[in-house]
Amino acid sequence: PKDKWNYPEMKPASSSDQADITSFQKVVIVVGSVIVGLCVVACIATAICISIGNRRIYQRRSAKPIDNPDTNNNA
Hints:
- The protein is an all-alpha fold and 75 residues long.
- 79% of the residues lie in helices and 0% in strands.
- It has helices at residues 15-67, 69-74.
- The longest helix has 53 residues, at 15-67.
- Keywords: Membrane, Transmembrane, Transmembrane helix.
- The chain crosses the membrane at residues 27-52.
């Protein structure tokens, strides 16, 4: 009975092959989730940077009339 397991036709689906498939699927899922997470983090980071940049631009625009030397010289 032990000899028949030597033939691949008679051999049942080994647990190692199934483990390889499942591990490959897990790797694909993990890599995909990591890529999606990085994209989400990048989108959030760019949104935060844009909002901070807009705030700084607005502050500079609002501060320009006060800090502008021309208005100070006229006064």
